[in-house]
From TrEMBL:
Residues 515-524 have a biased composition (Basic and acidic residues). Residues 11-366 form the AMP-dependent synthetase/ligase domain. PANTHER family: LONG-CHAIN-FATTY-ACID--COA LIGASE, NONRIBOSOMAL PEPTIDE SYNTHASE PES1 (EUROFUNG)-RELATED. This is AMP-binding protein. Residues 502-524 are annotated as: Disordered. Residues 418-491 form the AMP-binding enzyme C-terminal domain.
C-alpha cells in the first residue's frame, strides 16, 4: 500500500502545474509546493529528528502548517498538533506524554510556549518572529529540494489529542495506512472530483482538517488556507477561489450564514456540503439547503479514533439521521447497560453506539492510557460513548453522549431531539439543552437559547407543544444567553451550562397572561 508521502507524489507527478496551496497572496503549484516540502523534510533531519520521533506543533492553519504536515509524512516523523490556543500547562502535559523531541510554534502561541518549562528543554522551531526559538523555520526554505519518501504505510502518521472536556486529553496515534484509507473513503463518500477546491478552515489539529488536506492531495486539488476562522474572510475566499465544496462543523456554517456579507457573496461554485463534529439541528439544515442548493449534503459521523462511523449522503431528506455505517466500518447499537458487544438494542431503542476495531480506519489504542483503553476498547469493539438508535429503515440517529443523558422523573431524555425542535422556531438562532438538578424530578430539562428576535418562554413552550416532541421531554425552563459555550471546534460544552458558566441575556418581554380556563402544565 502507498504511504502518504508517495500519495502526495502522485499529484506532484500527475499535475505539477495545478494550484495546490493558497494562503493569502501565496499561490503554489504542486511542483512549487514539493520543493518547500522537501526543504522542510531536510530541515527536520538537520535538527536531529528521525523516523518515529514525535514533533509537537502549535500553529494555525497557515501554509507552514500544511507544509510541515506533509514533510513529516515523507520523513516518518509523527506530527503531534495542538490547538494554537493551548495553555502552557497543556504544552507541558503533551510534551511529556508524547515524548516529543522538538516543537514548532508561531507568534499566536509564543506566550504559552514561553511559559512551558518543558518547552525550554526542547528544540524550538519558530515560524515567523518568535522569541526564544532555537531554529528559524524560514532558514530551511533557503534550500528547496524534492521530497524523498522514507516512511512506509505502517508508520505512524500523526497523534491527535482529544479535546479533553473531562480530564486530561488522550493521545490518538494513527498510522499512515489508516489515514490514507480514511481519505480515500472521504473522497468516495462525498463524491469529490478531480481538481476540487476546498476551504482549509477546519484546524489541522483536528481530524476534519487533516482529512480535507489529505483528500485534496488525492485529487490534484487546491487547499485554501484560512489561518484563523473569520466569517468575512472565509466568504471572500469562497468567492475569490471558486471553492467547490465545504466540510465544516455546524457552528461555522451558522457563522457564515449569519454574517452580513453572505447575501452579497457569490457562493454558486459550492456544489457539495458536508458537516461533522456535532449534530446539525433542523433549522440550520434547512437554511443551508436554501442558501446553497447543493448537489450533495453529507452528514458525516465519526471521531479521531475511527474516522468514519456512519454517512448520510442526503442530510436534508432525513434530518438528524447519521445514515448507515461507512464503507470501512461496522457499527452496532447495544443497550445502555450492556458491558459487552454481543446483544443489539431493539429497533428504536436508545443505546450506546460501538464500532468494530478491525475497520480499516480504526486506531489501535490510546497513547499511554491503559485506563482509557480498558473503558473504550472491549472484545474488539470501540465503545464510542455516544447514544443513538436505529430506525425502521436501518438508519442510525445519534442522540447525544452517555454523559449528557438527562434522567428526569425516571425517564432517559437526550438533548438532541429537543434542540432540533426548538431550532425550527424563527426567533431561535442557537439552542442547547442540558439537565439541571431538580429536587422533584432529579433533573429538569432546561433549554439555553440564543435568539435572533424577541421571543418569550411561553411562546417557545407553545412551539414544543404543537411539535411531535413527547410531553416529558419539553423544557421546564428557558434561559436566554448571549452565546452557547463551545469547544474550539464547535462542540457544545453542556458541562459549562450545567455549571453556570455562561453570560445570561436580558429576559424577553412577557406575553399576555393565560386565558382563565387554561392552566399551566404541572406534570411530565
Amino acid at each position: 500500500m502507498l504511504d502518504l508521502g508517495r500519495t502526495l507524489l502522485q499529484s506532484i507527478e500527475r499535475s505539477p502545474r495545478a494550484t495546490a496551496l493558497v494562503d493569502g497572496a501565496l499561490r503554489w503549484s504542486y511542483a512549487d509546493w514539493a520543493l518547500r516540502v522537501g526543504a522542510v523534510q531536510q530541515g527536520l533531519a538537520r535538527a536531529g529528528l528521525r523516523r518515529g520521533d514525535h514533533l509537537l506543533v502549535v500553529m494555525q492553519n497557515r501554509w507552514e502548517m500544511a507544509t510541515l504536515h506533509w514533510a513529516c509524512q515523507f520523513a516518518g516523523i509523527v506530527i503531534t498538533p495542538l490547538n494554537w490556543r493551548a495553555k502552557s500547562e497543556d504544552i507541558d502535559y503533551c510534551l511529556a506524554d508524547s515524548g516529543a523531541r522538538a516543537l514548532v510554534c508561531e507568534p499566536a502561541a509564543e506566550a504559552a510556549v514561553a511559559g512551558s518549562a518543558l518547552a525550554a528543554q526542547r528544540i524550538r522551531i519558530g515560524v515567523g518572529e518568535v522569541q526564544g526559538a532555537t531554529i528559524a523555520f524560514k532558514e530551511w526554505l533557503a534550500a528547496p529540494c524534492e521530497p524523498i519518501p522514507h516512511a512506509v504505510a505502517d508508520d505512524l502518521s500523526l497523534m491527535l489529542y482529544t479535546s479533553g472536556t473531562t480530564g486530561k486529553p488522550k493521545g490518538v496515534p494513527r498510522r499512515q495506512r489508516a489515514e490514507r484509507i480514511a481519505a480515500l473513503a472521504h473522497v468516495a463518500q462525498n463524491r469529490y472530483a478531480i481538481s476540487e477546491r476546498t476551504l482549509g478552515v477546519m484546524p489541522l489539529y483536528h481530524t476534519m482538517g487533516v482529512r480535507s488536506l489529505l483528500a485534496l492531495a488525492l485529487l490534484d486539488g487546491c487547499f485554501v488556507c484560512i489561518p484563523k476562522f473569520d466569517a468575512r474572510s472565509a466568504l471572500a475566499a469562497i468567492e475569490r477561489e471558486r471553492i467547490t465544496h465545504l466540510y465544516l462543523v455546524p457552528t461555522l456554517y451558522h457563522d457564515l450564514l449569519s454574517h452580513a456579507d453572505f447575501a452579497q457573496t457569490d457562493v454558486t461554485s459550492v456544489r457539495k456540503l458536508g458537516f461533522a463534529g456535532a449534530p446539525m439541528h433542523d433549522g440550520l439544515l434547512q437554511r443551508l439547503d436554501a442558501a446553497f442548493r447543493p448537489e450533495l449534503f453529507v452528514n458525516h459521523y465519526g471521531s479521531s479514533e475511527i474516522y468514519t462511523f456512519a454517512i448520510s449522503q442526503n442530510a436534508v431528506a432525513k434530518p438528524g439521521a447519521a445514515g448507515r455505517a461507512g464503507m470501512n466500518t461496522r457499527l452496532r447499537v447495544i443497550p445502555l447497560v450492556a458491558e459487552t458487544p454481543e446483544r443489539n438494542a431493539a429497533q428504536g431503542e436508545e443505546g450506546q453506539i460501538i464500532a468494530d476495531l478491525l475497520g480499516d480506519e480504526a486506531f489501535e489504542g490510546y497513547h499511554n492510557r491503559p485506563d482509557a483503553n480498558a473503558k473504550s476498547l472491549r472484545d474488539g469493539w470501540y465503545f464510542t460513548g455516544d447514544t443513538g438508535y436505529v430506525d425502521a429503515d436501518g438508519d442510525l440517529y445519534v442522540t447525544g453522549r452517555v454523559d449528557d443523558m438527562i434522567i428526569s422523573g425516571g425517564e432517559n431524555i437526550s438533548p438532541v431531539d429537543i434542540e432540533s425542535v426548538l431550532s425550527l422556531h424563527p426567533a431561535v438562532d442557537e439552542v442547547a439543552v442540558a439537565g439541571l438538578r431538580d429536587e422533584r424530578w432529579g433533573q429538569k430539562v432546561v433549554a439555553f437559547v440564543k435568539t435572533r428576535a424577541p421571543v418569550a418562554p411561553d411562546a417557545l413552550d407553545a412551539h414544543c407543544r404543537v411539535s411531535d416532541l413527547v410531553n416529558f421531554k419539553r423544557p421546564r425552563e428557558y434561559v436566554f444567553v448571549h452565546e452557547i459555550p463551545k469547544s474550539p471546534v464547535g462542540k457544545v460544552l453542556r458541562r459549562k451550562l450545567v455549571a453556570g458558566e455562561f453570560e445570561q441575556a436580558a429576559p424577553m418581554p412577557p406575553t399576555p397572561p393565560l386565558h382563565p380556563k387554561e392552566k399551566p402544565d404541572e406534570t411530565q
